[in-house]
Amino acid sequence: xxxxxxxxxxxxxxxxxxxxxAAIRSVARSAIYKGFRVIGIRxxxxxxxxxxxxxxxxxxxxxxxxxxxxxxxxxxxxEFKTKAVLEExxxxxxxxxxxxxxxxxxxxxxxxxLALSEVGIPCVGxxxxxxxxxxxxxxxxxxxxxxxxxxxxxxxxxDTAQSHDRCSVVEVMGRNAGYLAVTTGVACGALAILVPExxxxxxxxxxxxxxxxxxxxxxxxxxxxAEGSGSAVEIAEFIxxxxxxEATPTVLGHVQRGGRPTTRDRHLASIMGFRAVELISSGVxxxxxxxxxxxxxxxxxxxxxxxxxxxxxxxxxxxxxxSI
Length: 324
Known about the structure:
Layout: E1 7-12, H1 20-33, E2 37-41, H2 44-49, E3 53-56, H3 83-95, E4 100-105, H4 107-118, E5 123-127, H5 143-164, E6 167-172, H6 179-188, E7 192-194, H7 202-215, E8 221-226, H8 232-243, E9 247-251, H9 263-281, E10 287-292, E11 295-300, H10 301-306, H11 313-322
Parallel strand pairs: 1-2, 1-4, 4-5, 5-10, 6-8, 6-9, 7-8
Antiparallel strand pairs: 2-3, 10-11
Helix pairs in contact: 1-9, 5-6, 7-8
């Protein structure tokens, strides 16, 4: 069943991701072009509850496409899980004339959108998270920028690891998902990549391989650890104690979230934002925009949240074979 919408609210929630600003820009300008009133909501669902919002115009989103972070700011809102708060959010939307929300963020943001839709606030979700852990979408906004940031820093670490014949153990972000670790590990020629989705044995998968490659002439090593699969500090200590090779830990941390978004993130965010407004202008909501098999598609929010994806084990097998 289609509905008629006149006012669109935009928010970003959860962890920030490079490219969110491009999505905000695309939604705002596409919506204004079609005659919608657009309300920017600061600090995600937290800002919605506190009515921290303002009316946007064409110039509100000028000079933001190249900026990391989110000009609407973001926050995490655990209180949003309660029925009373959801009902309050509905009243606030009605009071401010907001007919539909565009929610940009990761898994938690989509779950918030689903909860809002269930109390009668139509929502459209746009996946924005460096973790790339939404099952409905092969790719999420921010993932490419984070990969490139991590890759550049690991390349820098390689220089010093080579100078000292040491092992650099690098912890990358990703929460409970290993996508960022796998892609950067393959791109950087890591000796080993440790992810939460696939069990590992440090002696077999790291120490034995390290000593073997040292025996055939390798003198420095890179080990990538997804944050959900272990501590770089503890793993470095283990490697050094078992191999006799100096091992230094590096936790890249939130630097991976920042920086100018790449071409791919700006491009995809712009397309997804446009697609969200196209749905809304057709009277359709309660969908998540997704990138699937090279195409931009959309799914029912509840269906999207049930979808799963996992690490392709052949990528790790390939990495093991070519990193000797």
